[in-house]
Design a protein that fits this description.
Blueprint: H1 7-24, E1 32-35, E2 40-43, E3 52-55, H2 64-81, E4 86-89, H3 98-104, E5 108-109, E6 114-120, E7 132-136, H4 140-153, H5 169-173, E8 178-185, E9 192-199, E10 202-210, H6 219-233, E11 238-242, H7 248-253, E12 257-266
Parallel strand pairs: 3-4, 10-11
Antiparallel strand pairs: 1-2, 2-3, 4-12, 5-12, 6-11, 6-12, 7-8, 8-9, 9-10
Length: about 280
């Protein structure tokens, strides 16, 4: 069995997460990318920090001046885009003092750290509400419902991301690398979403969300069970995710273990925004 706490697995999970976050923030119609010498930047252009990201830091054989110039270039890139954004830092970023450099440039840490979690497949057996229906997105109507659910559940600003999934319809309906699901209570309207996405050869759980009025019905648990079952059927032995404070207890029920945490930094003057 894989050692989920090995350095090799942790690095793999980190590469997977940044690869998927880069993909998610690069597929919108107005998306723009910027790759520097040690940083990857992806921006949807939407007014949501979680969809405009500077991902990690991997500065090797560069001078202190080079690093500072790149930090300033990232700040200028997002200033020109006129969108809110986050800088994700993993425990494997280099140089080791990159956090101090960001803080010196005016960025501030937004606690708490975002848990990176990993589980073996197949998952632990967990009872779910039998009165729930879970299905894989197959129509534009499914994508429209998913966009609405995500917009409301993630507390996006008015008008932001209201057509997120249908703007990338082909990506979400072809089932490769992303597999999007919806859930409802019996034959009721779609009330929850979730997806598993493959990158770096392993799957990860993403965009888990439930409309506020439909919480406490076990919809998230039902979707998660389906995602894990389908990822197992796809031949995978492990799966990763990043968990919100609200979601972490649910994921632990399915055998997920925290292996490290991501740090989020906000640029100088930015307002905090994060789903709890």
């Amino acid at each position: 069995m894989l050692d989920l706490h090995s350095t090799e697995i942790a690095h793999l999970a980190d590469r997977h997460t940044f690869a998927v976050q880069a993909w998610l923030s690069s597929r919108a119609p107005s998306a723009v990318s910027f790759d520097g010498r040690g940083i990857k930047v992806r921006s949807t252009g939407l007014g949501v920090p979680l969809l405009n990201l500077a991902l990690g830091a991997n500065f090797i054989d560069v001078t202190d001046e080079d690093i500072q110039l790149e930090i300033e270039a990232v700040k200028e890139f997002f200033a020109a885009r006129r969108v809110p954004w986050y800088w994700w830092i993993s425990p494997f970023s280099s140089p080791t003092n990159i956090v101090a450099r960001l803080e010196a440039s005016g960025a501030r840490y937004l606690p708490p750290a975002l848990p990176a979690m990993i589980a073996h497949l197949p998952p632990h057996k967990t009872e779910v509400n039998p009165n729930l229906r879970v299905w894989q997105a197959g129509t534009r109507a499914d994508l429209e419902a998913a966009s609405y659910i995500r917009h409301i559940a993630f507390k996006f600003p008015k008008g932001a991301g209201v057509s997120y999934f249908e703007d990338m319809a082909e990506d979400w309906l072809r089932g490769d690398p992303a597999h999007l699901y919806l859930a409802s209570v019996n034959d009721g309207p779609p009330a929850a979403i979730g997806a598993w996405i493959v990158a770096e050869g392993i799957p990860g759980i993403y965009v888990m969300a439930t409309l506020p009025e439909w919480r406490q019905h076990g919809l998230g648990k039902a979707i998660l069970q389906r995602l894990l079952a389908d990822a197992t059927a796809g031949g995978h032995q492990m799966i990763v995710l990043t968990a919100s404070n609200m979601g972490e207890p649910l994921y632990r029920q399915f055998g997920f273990e925290r292996v490290f945490g991501y740090l989020f930094y906000l640029p100088e003057g930015a307002e905090a925004y994060i789903d709890d």
